[in-house]
Each structure stands twice: as C-alpha cells, then as structure tokens.
Amino acid sequence: MSTPGTHAVTVDLVDDDGIRLHAGSDELCNLLFDDRRIWSFWVQRDGRPDGDGWLVPWPERLLLHLEGTTRVTITTAAGATAYDAEVRFGTEDRRLTVVDRQGAPLGIDNYGRLVKTFETKDRGELLPLLDALETVLGLLREQGLEAFPAYGTLLGAVRDGAFIGHDSDADVGYVSRHSHPLDVIRESHRVQRAIQRQGYETARYSGAAFQILVPDADGSRRGLDVFGGFFIDGRLALMGEVFQPFEREWVFPLGTTTLEGRELPAPARPEHLLEAMYGPGWKVPDPAFRFEKSADAQRRFDWWFRGTRVNRPQWDHRYGLARLLPPYQPPHDVSVVLHEREPADAWVLDAGCGRARDARWLAKQGRQVVGLDYSGVAMDFVRARAAEQGWPLELHTVNLLELRQLLVWGARLAARPGPRAMLARHLIDSTSPQGREHVWRLADMVLRGGHRLHLEFLTERIEDEEGRPPLTRPLDPDLVVAELAGWGARVVAREDLVGQPIDYGYGEEVSRDKHWRSCRLEVEWR
Amino acid sequence: MKLRGRERELEARIAALEAQVAECQSLHHRFAELMDVVTELLVPLASRDEAKVQETLQKYADELGS
Fold it and tell me: Where is the Methyltransferase domain (chain A) (predicted)?
C-alpha cells in the first residue's frame, strides 16, 4: 500500500450507490456523517474502477442505515477535506442516524462490521472493558501463561496509551514455553478448563485460541479473545496472523505498557510484535487496516490448530435469526419414523438437534431425549423455551468436531441405562469428513449392542437462488454405506427421498417448494 | 513439451506432498485432545475408583466450554 496523503483525492459525487471519486494512488479516506466518523476505506482496495475514476460502494452493513439527510465529510489521512456537503439518501425526510436499537452510535470496524466502536463511547464506558482485560490477564497468569494485550489493544497502548477509536474489543496473547503444536494445544485446553472451573464461560476457536466471557456489572457478558503463540524453528507463530522470524528476547522477559492509565504487561520489545502484526507502517493510524494473510502461515495454522468450527458462526447467525420464527413447528418425517420403529422405552440422542424441532416432538411423545448441538445460540434459545414451556428436554452445547468433547460425551451417554436410538438429521452432510468420522465414533460408543441410528442426509447439490453457499452439501449414499460398514454397522432400511424440507443455513421455508433429493438410512450397530 | 510435462508432474507431486503434510500436521490436534482426556481419566482408572471415573467424566464435560 502506498503512503497516504501523497496524492490529492477529488470526490465527484456521494449518493445511494457509494462515493465516486478520483485519486492518484490508493488513498486512505475517512467518512464522517454529521461530524462523526462512520467508516474508513482505501480508494482502490475497497472501490472499483468507474469511468476514469473510482466508485467506492457502501459497506453492506451500512446500507440499512442510509435513509435521510446528513452532512457527509470525507477527509484524507493527511487531514485534507475532500468533500463536505449535505446529502440526502433514500426517500425519507429525516436526519440520517447510524445507531443500534437502543440508539447507541455505531461505526464500521476494520472487519466491515457495524459495531459500537470505542470512539462512540465515553471514557467511563471503557472502564468495564479495562477491568475485564485485567481479569483475563490475571486468570492466564495464574495458569502460568505470561499474557499481554495483543493486536489492536497492544497497538493502541504502545502508540497512544489508549484504546484505538475504531476498535471494538480487547485481545490478549501469550507465547507458550512449549515448542510443539501438540503441547501448545494441550496447554490451551488445560487452561481453558481451569478458567471454566472458576466459573467463567469459555468458547474455543481453535486448538490454540479461545474466548473468555467476563460478566459486566450490568449482567451482560463481554468476550475477550485469547490468542496462543509459540516459538518454532526461530519463528514466532501467534494465532491469528503472525508467523515470522522472531527473537525470544523480543518477548521475554515481559515488560510493561500503559493503557488508559493502567500499567499492563507487554512483550519486552512490543514494536517488533506490532511490526509483525501490522507491518512497518504500524505507527501511522489506519482505521481501514486489513490483515494481509500469508498463505503459508494460514496453511500451517489450519493444519496445526483449526478445523473444529466448521460453519459454526454461520449456524449461530442462522439460529440467531430463527428466534423470529413461530415457536411451534411440526416434526420432520424422520423423527416420526424413529418414533414408530423404536421400542417405546428407548431414549433418544438427537445429535445436531439445531432448534430441537424433532427433539421437542419426541420428548412430547413421552421419550427421554438428549439434544446436542454446537451452536450455543441455538442451545440457549431452545433451553430457555424448554424451561418456559416445561418440555422434558435435556440439551447440551457440544462440539462434536472436538475429539475430547466427543469422547467424553460418548462415554457419558454410553453409560446411561436402557434401550436407546440416535437421530442425526442433516448432520453428516453439514460437517467435514473429520466431523462425519466423529459422528460414526459417537454412534459406535452409544449404540453398541444392536441399537439403531436414524440418518437423513442430502444427496443432491442445493442451488440457492441468491447464490449463497449452502451450509449443507450432498453426500454419496454408497460412500456413507461403505463408511458405516467399516464401523461394523449394518444398514437395515434405506429410503431415497425427494422434496423433504431442509434448512441449509438460510431457513427451511425457502426450500419448501423445492425438490432436492435426500437419503434416509436406518443403521444397526453390533 | 517435455518441460511442461515435467512441470505438471512436479505440481502434482507438490500437491500430493502438501496433502500428506496436512494429514500429519492435523494429527497433532487429535492426539492432543486424546491425551487430555486420557490423562484426566487414567488416574481414577488406575485406582479402580468407579465413582471417581464417573465424577471425572462429569467434571471434564462441565469444564469443556463451548
């Protein structure tokens, strides 16, 4: 990226489509509505050629708010004002506001998200975050990890002694004393369990990164991300983005930095870590900064640590929206079949139960039902409804992509008495091959001794009319049957189906009149 | 012509090697998880304490986070 401010920016037009402008090189610009910064962008990176100039379209998240009149100001990184005029967006006759439902001001952060950035808050509002940051650093220190503020939080502290205005959360990093990914993962798991034991909720991102939820005074919870790192062959690998030659002395022994008046630990030479994170230009603020990911680093991180969150954020998002759906929906055919075929006293494990449409129905038929799903959003929602309505449902947020979770839950469920059956509807076609392997292992642990698995999966590719990537992908039934045979399981019934409703990530109602093919198998475990 | 064939061969070889490296590297993750569970379980198992085994499983599951 070129040095900002070396060429003039001329803005020709600001309207509902975006910003039309001319710039000699890729320039960093700040956009203000009624004197408040809303967004920052790089002309060429975020725009597209338009005639002999550029058109920078509005970020998707901002579009919803472009209604009414506002004074638009565009400044360059050098401080020049390139545009300053009243603009009317949409058709409504009112002042344009970019606020959330409670009226709190929002801004676009460097991930393109519309969030309550620090610059929208009073200093007093930042105190709980500072407290949470110190809590997390303390929790990690107790576990023997020398943690420090990382990424934007470290950048703000070292550069300005303050949070960065366009940032919206606080990050923490540590460099493990271990030098093998395997030990780094074990250590991260151990520390996560220890912190969970102390009463803090946690959520795992990868083998070396997780989130700690720290309660706020108002009862809400604030998630702080903890990124693990380690030295390998003279390089520092720090989850997220860093993988490059690095001296141990640049980290240890830790020094200090000051953030909003509080002294916090920091790498011995934080400037080296900041350069590794943000490049040599880290001293110059860039609210539109985007990490340029090195393909090699990403590949290594993927191999070492990732693969346990396949589409989980997407399902969380999907189930977040599903709150708006009507509470009662009829069961899917597969659970009706299960109910007919299984002994009346068999309890049911619904793996990947989602909003528990089937688990709920089966429970209402008088069966004991255990629902598992990796979407915490779905589980929180259903758990609340189950408590409200008195459904006899047992629900757990379990990520079967993690081997440790699968093994422990498999063992616990296997130890339950009585006949049992397992339901897995559009689970094996919504996960990775590794995830599918884990489903078979779970079934193997729980269903040994002649119990049955009721499976339904997609066999034909879904074409979404809006071109969105389906979260559920077809599987070849022969492959599935062969894999099951490898586990010593026997297919006792097979039905090829057309037109079963399926939620492939964007709501079931969309597919109601479609006729995608799927396959239903009843599988008996020896 | 010959060179291009050699290039394709090398590309295929690199792709195969990458896949093999990926396979090996991803084993660390599974192995680490397995060690974590086994370590926690072995102690009560060695002392043949069934109640403790159940308690360990319960505690482990409770501490998993999400």
Answer: 348-403
- What backbone phi and psi angles, to 5 degrees, belong to A37? -65, 130
Candidate from A203, A305, A404 with C-beta closest to B66: A203
Name residue A41's beta-bridge partners: A29
Out of A185, A376, A409, whose CB is closest to B61? Answer: A409
Domains A119-305 and A312-525 belong to one CATH topology = no
Residue A224, number of CB atoms within 10 A of its CB: 22
DSSP bridge partners of A114: A108
* Residues A75 and A82 sit within 8 Å (Cβ to Cβ): yes
Over the stretch A178-209, which tens digit does the pLDDT of each residue have? 999 999 999 999 999 999 999 999 999 999 99
Which residues in B have their CB inside 8 Å of a CB on A?
Answer: 18, 21-22, 25-26, 28-37, 54, 57-58, 60-66
What pLDDT, in 10s, does the model give residues A283-333? Answer: 988 888 888 878 888 989 999 999 999 999 999 988 887 666 665 688 999
User: Which residues of chain A does B64 touch, with a Cβ-Cβ cutoff of 8 Å?
Assistant: 193, 196, 398, 402, 404-405, 408
Which sequence spans correspond to the domains of chain A?
A: 9-108, 119-305, 312-525
Dist. CA A374–CA A431, nearest whole Å: 11
For domain A119-305, the CATH architecture is: 2-Layer Sandwich (3.30)
In Å, how far is A233's CA from the nearest CA of chain B? 16
CB contacts of B57 in chain A (<8 Å) are: 408, 411-412, 415
- Superfamily designation of domain A312-525: Vaccinia Virus protein VP39 (3.40.50.150)
Q: How far apart are CA A271 and CA A468, in angstroms?
A: 41
ipTM beyond 0.85?
no
Interface test with B, best of A139, A178, A182 (most B CBs within 10 A): A182
Preceding amide of A253 cis, omega within 30? yes
- Give per-residue pLDDT as tens, A81-120: 999 999 999 999 999 999 988 888 899 987 788 888 888 8
